[in-house]
Amino acid sequence: MARAKQLYEENGVQVSKSSIRVGDEITLSYSGLLVQCGAESVYAHIGYGENWEAKEFIPMERCNDVFKAKIKVTHPDSLNIAFKDSGDNWDNNSYLNYSFKVSEKPARTTKKASSTTEKKTASAKKSAEEKTTSKKTTKKTAAKKTKS
Questions:
Q1: Which residues form the Carbohydrate binding module family domain (predicted)?
Q2: Which residues of the chain have pLDDT under 50?
């Protein structure tokens, strides 16, 4: 099966998920202009929405000819990314930045897994209650035998 082409793949920018949600941890890969010009270190500058809220610089690790970083997605607005090297050279996609849509809904657990957990919890509570009731009955029976 052929891999789907990503939005900024030609610029050397890729993310590990095609659909990004709040709470996801994604891997960002960069092999773009700065790397091609010999950058020794690269930082991802990220922010959310038009105003670049919660902006931060994330150092990227070099792995052969690709720089990578893990990003925890924390806001339900577009994730904007630009890249900077140690010489203060920037790759910001010709002032357009690299923007990725972020879904507001956090990654959900499957209903089946949630249901299974609830059943196990209910079963454990029932078992504990049965043991407590059994101990009380045994104590009452023992007490009656002692009195006889």
A1: 23-103
A2: 1-4, 132-146, 148
**Does 60 map to a domain?**
yes
CA distances (Å), origin 47, targets 3, 6, 94? 28, 20, 17
One domain, residues 67 and 134: no
| Secondary structure element (H or E) that encloses residue 29, with its range | strand 25-30
The pLDDT of residue 21 is 95
125: its two tokens: 């509570």
Whether the CB-CB separation of 78 and 101 falls below 8 Å is answered with yes
Cβ atoms of 39 and 59 closer than 8 Å = no
**Cβ within 8 Å of residue 75, ≥6 positions away:** 22, 48, 49, 53, 54, 102
Label residue 10 left, alpha or beta by phi (over 0 means left) and psi (-120 to 50 means alpha). alpha
CA angle 23, 27, 32 (to 5 degrees): 135
Output the DSSP codes for 81-114: EEEEETTS-EE-TTTT-EEE-EESSPPPPPHHHH
Pair (20, 82) in one structural domain: yes
- Rounded Cα–Cα distance for residues 10 and 7 (Å): 8
